[in-house]
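Format notes (please read before filing issues)

Several people have asked whether sequences and structure tokens are stored in separate files. They are not. Every record keeps both together, in the order shown below: the sequence lines, then the token lines. Line labels are part of the format and must not be stripped during preprocessing.
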Amino acid sequence: EAGLPGRISMPLLVVHGIADEVIPHAVSTRFVDQVPHADKELWLVEAEAGGDHRLNRPILEVWRRMDARIG
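Then the structure lines:
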């Protein structure tokens, strides 16, 4: 939905793999850029670190970052 990013008012973490073969990471970059507040993070996971569509390898770091963001 085009208007979704503008309605997000809570802390945001978006994780996207650089090597995602399904959805280009530019989609997440545009999404995060449209969120109107500064309490947001876009983590683009490098291919060598498991940054594919599934993000299985970096899942522990994903959970750690989520926990840190929501406190």
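For reference, the curators noted about this record: The CA atoms of residues 11 and 70 lie 7 Å apart. The chain has a mean pLDDT of 95.
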